[in-house]
């Protein structure tokens, strides 16, 4: 478990800075301030980034950082952070990490024992869920934004049962429900499921927590959850150990009961899947394998 209070520590920081997708005037004041203040800027193409930085009279060392040298840049970035340097990562256009370099680097840094000695945050990355997604280190794969987490237990079960392998799921949750939702996830997800909890994104109290589903109970029991502000949750489920609402044997049994009550197979499967929040196609396959 790793807890980062972004703006309340003196640690060197990696800033993932969003840049204009076309019009150079789309830069935010905050982006300009950060790029002006950091010690180094890592960018896809130094020529492209030079045009942007020159436009805003930003003069900082540029280091090429693209998909062909991302792995080799890891040690240089770690060295700079250990020297107390602040670093910005930008792409040619748009947000770093998503379909751009950065995902592999962040994954390695986050899993490094020295990760506690520096911070990672996003600047000018659009909505809160994108900020959290790129900071998480999970974003080198497919992602699915769910909006606000559904308040109905049946719908929550349905969402969980439709999770797919190697997909990052992101949702918003209110301060009044975050504890309950985290408990639900700890009970339903496999213990090795990866989770990021983001709070107060871009504000002075911004906080990120990286943990596994098996660590949620400890996180809550030790009162490390600050129940203030709005929350974003990013997770990658461990598919092998998802805790379904009912076992496979019970699913088949429920379908058989409905068939014995007069429904045909298709209708029975549809009714059971709806009642227990199950994936209808998966239940169909399961029933015909019995």
UniProtKB/TrEMBL annotation:
GO biological process, one term: rRNA processing
Gene3D superfamilies hit by this protein: Cobalt-precorrin-4 Transmethylase, Domain 1 (3.40.1010.10), Methyltransferase, Cobalt-precorrin-4 Transmethylase, Domain 2 (3.30.950.10)
GO molecular function terms listed in the Swiss-Prot or TrEMBL record: methyltransferase activity
SUPFAM superfamilies for this protein: Tetrapyrrole methylase
Keyword Isomerase: no
Pfam hit, one: TP_methylase
Residues annotated as domain Tetrapyrrole methylase: 13-212
InterPro entries: 4pyrrol_Mease, 4pyrrol_Methylase_sf, 4pyrrole_Mease_sub1, 4pyrrole_Mease_sub2, rRNA_ssu_MeTfrase_I, SAM_MeTrfase_RsmI_CS
UniProtKB keywords: Cytoplasm, Methyltransferase, rRNA processing, S-adenosyl-L-methionine, Transferase
UniProt cross-references to PROSITE patterns, sorted A to Z: RSMI (PS01296)
NCBIfam families: 16S rRNA (cytidine(1402)-2'-O)-methyltransferase
PANTHER family, per the entry: RIBOSOMAL RNA SMALL SUBUNIT METHYLTRANSFERASE I
Protein name: 16S rRNA (Cytidine1402-2'-O)-methyltransferase
Protein species of origin: Spiroplasma alleghenense
Gene: rsmI
